[in-house]
Design goal:
binds magnesium ion, Rossmann fold, alpha/beta, binds zinc ion, 9% strand, 10 strands, Zinc Finger, Delta Prime, domain 3, three-stranded mixed β-sheet, 4 domains, 544 residues, binds adenosine-5'-triphosphate
Length: 544
């Protein structure tokens, strides 16, 4: 008997079986019940969370021989054909390999004809963001005047790549990642049906590793079965993935918090000798400090952390043994460390230095604490007394690993630079990299950025703004951005009224003045003096 992978074997066949997407399934079912079907749907969201699955169920419900209903019958000829991928009326097209105008033209030819047997012709286009611009344009024509018997379902993991002309003609559904808890119970059910005995802890690990994707969770279970057979324990997964033992990891954390440098290094050596992946260890360290920090700040274990009860209790204990300040610093250190370890040619050494600094760090009084005291007591001379611990000399202010140990006017924030700062450094870089492009970009006003895009403001009808929207330049800029930011980034051109451009400039001016004023403050000068520190960066409240 051939083995069918779990993800296919357990693909939901009804809306009711789909997990975690109730906001989608309910809306679709209502539409089906009222027979108010939209002619184009866009399903977006991460990999393996049900987009294709729901598209197929919808196609069945639309073409079921028992009539359009809230659920397909899954028995009739039409339903069976769709399940088996043999239906003439339901076409699944892989956008990744049918990207040309010609491919879309073919669809446009076909849609003219009535469905062969069912009520609707359903076109499911997966990875639709891969279509070329001209293919999108061709598609647009069909979307503008769709024949009444044609329904499109577009699916994509990268919705930002879909032109707004297409977006605005679709009803959009954002699929959600599936909560770890739900992944666990789903895996548990599958294991039961497959006669697999798997421990609770192992299930949690798989769910955690799958990061919200049910398909990934099922594939990992497939692997675990292939590896361990019918009885799967935590130990098996550890061997399989090179996972770190959590108890061991928490011991390492505890040594750091205890300022036990020798113990910390000894434990690291143990990890290293047992063949643990160093990058993974660094990430786990970061994740755990972040969790401790969250627990400390919120005073409880946030439910959305999806931690197993045992782990939560252990982290709570760890968090209770240090101050929020210290956790903040440790978090900043490990954040920087993850990056440096990943980039280093000698990751082990970088890791050791990181650990030594971290297990030393807890003795340092933070800049924030000092500033707070300066404000409270007014006089720097009273500093040493109420602190209870000595302010250490300059060498203890977190050196490079910490990045900008930054003083700020209102609050002290460390670690990652504000977003505003990234833009100037990009433009400086671009000036060298591509001076021509720079000369155009320079005309715009930076008005904000997020994970995926940078927004540049131009006055309405500015030729420069328009030039940046031309395909060739857009591409050049995209490549440059990606090269600099090391991730896909795009520029969004925002045409704004002249006065708004002026407003942005004024706001930036004002921030500059606040920064300068902060630097002139005696208390700041005094603090910098005591620490022997230099103010590298000032952040204004409201800066991200
Ligand atoms: N929400 C869900 N409920 C139940 N099972 C799911 C769900 N999401 C995914 N699965 C499982 O994962 C498999 C793959 O799901 P599906 O093909 O629908 O993912 P997708 O979102 O289309 O992913 P991709 O973006 O990679 O195409 C299904 O066969 C099913 O076993
Ligand atoms: Mg899919
Ligand atoms: Zn049917």
């Amino acid at each position: 008997m051939s083995y069918q992978v779990l993800a296919r074997k357990y693909r939901p066949q009804t809306f009711a079986e789909v997990l975690g997407q109730i906001h989608v399934t309910q809306t679709l079912q209502n539409a089906l019940g009222l027979n108010r079907i939209h002619h184009a749907y866009l399903f977006t969201g991460a990999r393996g969370i049900g987009k294709t699955t729901v598209a197929r169920i919808l196609a069945k419900a639309l073409n079921c021989e028992k009539g359009v209903a809230k659920e397909p019958c899954n028995q009739c000829g039409s339903c069976r054909n769709i399940i088996e991928g043999k239906s003439l009326d339901v076409q699944e097209i892989d956008g990744a390999s049918n990207t040309s105008v010609e491919d879309v033209r073919q669809i446009r030819e076909q849609v003219k004809y009535l469905p062969a047997t069912g009520h609707y012709k359903v076109y499911i286009i997966d990875e639709v963001h891969m279509l070329s611009t001209s293919a999108f344009n061709a598609l647009l024509k069909t979307l503008e005047e769709p024949p009444p018997h044609v329904i499109f379902v577009f699916a994509t993991t990268e919705v930002h790549k879909i032109p707004s002309t297409i977006l605005s003609r679709c009803q959009r559904f954002d699929f959600r990642r599936i909560a770890a808890k739900e992944l666990v119970s789903s895996l548990k059910e599958v294991a039961k049906q497959e006669g697999i005995d798997i421990s609770e802890e192992a299930l949690h690990l798989l769910a955690h590793e799958a990061q919200g994707s049910l398909r990934d969770a099922q594939s990992l279970l497939d692997q675990a079965i292939a590896f361990a057979g019918n009885q799967i324990g935590f130990q098996h997964l550890k061997e399989m993935f090179g996972f770190l033992d959590r108890t061991q990891l928490h011991n390492l954390l505890q040594s750091i918090l205890n300022k036990d440098q020798k113990g910390t290094l000894d434990q690291f050596q143990q990890f290293y000798q047992s063949g643990a992946d160093i990058n993974r260890l660094a990430q786990d360290l970061l994740k755990n400090f972040r969790n401790c920090y969250l627990i400390k700040t919120t005073g409880s274990v946030p439910e959305w952390l999806d931690l197993a009860a045992e782990e939560a209790a252990s982290l709570e204990k760890l968090a209770a043994s240090v101050s929020q300040e210290e956790l903040d610093q440790l978090f900043q250190f490990s954040l920087k460390g993850v990056d440096e370890i990943a980039r280093s040619g000698t990751p082990k050494i970088v890791f050791e230095v990181l650990l030594m600094r971290m297990s030393h760090l807890t003795q340092i009084v933070s800049v924030a604490q000092i500033l707070e005291r300066l404000e409270k007591y007014g006089q720097p001379s009273s500093l040493a007394l109420p602190v209870g611990r000595q302010v250490e000399e300059k060498k203890n202010v977190p050196p490079p690993l910490m990045g900008g140990g930054s003083l700020s006017a209102g609050s002290v924030a460390g670690g990652e630079g504000g977003e505003m700062e990234n833009w100037p450094s990009f433009t400086v870089w671009l000036k060298k990299e591509n001076p021509r492009l720079f000369s155009i970009v320079e005309q715009g006003k930076f008005t904000g950025m997020n994970e995926k895009e940078i927004i540049l403001g131009f006055e309405t009808a500015s030729v420069y703004g328009e030039m940046l929207q031309e395909e060739e330049r857009k591409q050049q800029l995209k490549i440059a951005l990606e090269k600099f930011f090391k991730k896909p980034m795009e520029i969004r051109i925002d045409f704004i009224k002249t006065e708004t451009v002026a407003n942005v400039a004024a706001a930036q001016d004002q921030r500059k003045q606040i920064r300068e004023a902060a630097l002139r403050q005696d208390s700041v000068k005094e603090a910098a003096n005591i620490l022997g520190a230099v103010v590298e960066e000032v952040r204004v409240d409201g800066d991200k």
